[in-house]
Amino acid sequence: MPNFSYIVKDAKGARVEGMIKADTLDMAVDKLSKEGNTIIAVKAAAEGAYKGKLSLFDKLMLTIYKIRTGVSLKTLVFFTRQLSTMFSAGLTIEKAISDLEKMEKNAKFAKVLRKISDDIRKGFSLSEAMEQHPGVFNPLYVALVQAGEVSGTLHTVLNELSDYLEKIEDTQRKVKSAMAYPLFIIVFLAFATWAIFYYIVPQFEQVYSNFNADLPAPTLAAIAISNFITGNLFLFILLLIAMVAAIFLFYLTDRGRYIMDTIKLKIPVIGGVINNSIMSKFSRTFSILMTAGVPIMETIELTENVVQNAVVEGAVRKARVLVKEGYGVANAFRRTGAFPSTLLQMIATGEETGDMDKLLAKSAQFYEKQVDAVIDRLTTLIEPLLIILMAAVVGSVIVVIYLPIFDLGEAMSQGFN
Description:
Elements: E1 3-9, E2 15-21, H1 25-34, E3 38-44, H2 56-69, H3 73-88, H4 93-103, H5 107-121, H6 126-131, H7 139-151, H8 154-211, H9 217-231, H10 233-252, H11 254-266, H12 270-291, H13 296-306, H14 310-324, H15 329-336, H16 341-353, H17 356-402, H18 408-416
Helix pairs in contact: 3-4, 3-8, 4-5, 7-8, 8-9, 8-12, 8-17, 10-11, 11-12, 12-13, 12-17, 13-14, 14-15, 15-16, 16-17
């Protein structure tokens, strides 16, 4: 049974905060109302998953929940842009979301919009309604909507949020496009190597066994690998699945995620693309939150949740503690040692001039251009390098298989003697 956090006023008018178990949000509201409370706010305690320490099982369940309920960034970008346009045209939020729900082709997202529309009719604000769906709307999205509601500039915030999401989507698309071809070649290479050991090597083994030839050590090793794969295909598939599952579970642990994210940042060339993409997202997020009027401590905390790299998250967390202790923002981030000097200079200048949001927006543009430049270079370099890699691996296996044929005459004479 899920938990819900609540803020109410009891029969004596005292403010009370706590947790309650209920099957649904409506049941939690009914239960609190029947106890004579005046409800101020009730929300799913699942939001606590973004903060504090989670067990491995909790992380696994949260990941499954996000996969099951989440929607693509492209869908979210289109929804935010349409909501901004309809709200600016004078439609109420409830009417706009109701209309978008009717037009939505994604059944999963349409169900979410239907629930949001129902919650708004019950008196929830848009941010409170969205907060019930953490798989779709992350804390950053909810915080910006809440800031727009409080400041009375929701239409402006929604427009800026849609621009922000479009830029994030564009950066992600470029990074994915840079990774897609190498990943395809590696998968193809693995499949080709497996096919050679499964289909081709056994045929050569039969030929060599007919001649009773003394085979070289590399060929014997190749035959041994082939025999293992062909004789234990089911076990091989299970081992492969187990290895993938182990890597996935290892990544869910704090230590495992930190190690793997560290490795990602140190991969030649690719690590630079990932780092520049992270800095672009960091700068863009920080900028839009400050523009929306979100307090600096909350801005840093929300930024930590969206960089999606354990190394940088740890640095942002450390910077937040330093800012809380009285350090300047630029000085706090500098002390973490995880941020480039260009970005730190922009933050320092922004602190001095009061234009940190504008300078961070320029920083985001700078790192986006860096990503574009590296991807352009990768496009020209990576194809020939991968072809060489594929030729080297497959060629080595073929040479090992054909090695005895180079001395076939001697092998045949040994067989006849």
